[in-house]
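Write out the 3D structure for:
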Amino acid sequence: MNKSELIEALAAKTDVTKAAAGKSVEALLEIITASVANGDDVALIGFGTFKASTRAARTGKNPKTGEVLEIAATTVPTFKAGAAFKAAVAPKKKGK
């Protein structure tokens, strides 16, 4: 599902226009992006948590030349799925 399909699904599920659903999706993404960029976590109980994580500096290798190089530390966005989301995606198997 891409963004336009998400907007169509949201419009159908909530009985709003595609334009209103599009504005809602855009606003939600902007809020999450701005919050994580400011160092805040965005926790949606049952769905998951968006946050910024620090990736330590490390030594890498150029796959073409084999040259060893240093990769600088950086901050990256991460998402950790919540229990309800995980359960919906991969339901537990019943015992024997």
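DSSP finds three helices and five strands in the chain.
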